[in-house]
């Protein structure tokens, strides 16, 4: 038997993204890498997504600054949410990610913003940026996401 949330959505089965609101999406993803990192989704629609992260000690590298892999993860997650919202019912995967680190994070939280800039039948091109809570740009990226089939059979 699979555990279901309040909306009847099982954590163990693929679902259609449009079935969930932001709270349900976070609950569904809490047992995945998303939950381990601590991402918090603040906005998602068919063209964009926004998430944030409260920086914790396990997010830091040995120099005591936010690890670049955490920033990469946030960008990929945020772009992925935008892609999934644009293509409900489809499996959408990252096929290319180009990332530029611009500044080290300072403060207790960072925000990631993703926007779709181009779509074809099978792919989406998405841009993203990471900022600190004061709006200082820490990283920017572009990514390509590819639809590889239906999410639910």
TrEMBL record:
Q: Which InterPro entries match?
A: ACOT13, HotDog_dom_sf, PAAI_dom, Thioestr_dom
Q: SUPFAM superfamilies under this entry?
A: Thioesterase/thiol ester dehydrase-isomerase (SSF54637)
Q: Which Gene3D superfamilies match?
A: Hotdog Thioesterase (3.10.129.10)
Residue ranges annotated for the Thioesterase domain, each copy included: 63-138
Q: What is its EC number?
A: 3.1.2.-
Q: Which residues cross the membrane?
A: none
Give the keywords, sorted.
Hydrolase
Record has Hydrolase as a keyword: yes
Output the Gene Ontology terms for molecular function. hydrolase activity
Q: Which family does it belong to?
A: Belongs to the thioesterase PaaI family.
Q: Tell me what this protein is called.
A: PaaI family thioesterase
Q: What is the lineage of its organism?
A: Bacteria, Bacillati, Bacillota, Bacilli, Bacillales
């Amino acid at each position: 038997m699979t555990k279901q949330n309040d909306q009847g959505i099982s954590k163990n089965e693929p679902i259609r993204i449009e079935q969930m609101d932001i709270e349900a999406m976070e609950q569904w993803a809490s047992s995945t890498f998303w939950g381990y990192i601590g991402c918090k989704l603040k906005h998602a629609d068919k063209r964009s997504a926004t998430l944030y992260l409260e920086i914790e000690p396990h997010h830091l590298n040995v120099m005591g600054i936010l690890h670049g892999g955490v920033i990469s993860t946030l960008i990929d997650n945020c772009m992925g949410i935008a892609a999934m919202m644009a293509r409900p019912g489809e499996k959408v995967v990252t096929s290319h990610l180009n990332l530029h680190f611009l500044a080290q994070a300072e403060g207790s939280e960072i925000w990631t913003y993703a926007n779709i800039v181009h779509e074809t039948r099978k792919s989406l091109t998405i841009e993203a940026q990471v900022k600190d809570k004061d709006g200082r740009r820490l990283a920017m990226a572009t990514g390509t996401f590819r639809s590889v089939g239906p999410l639910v059979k």
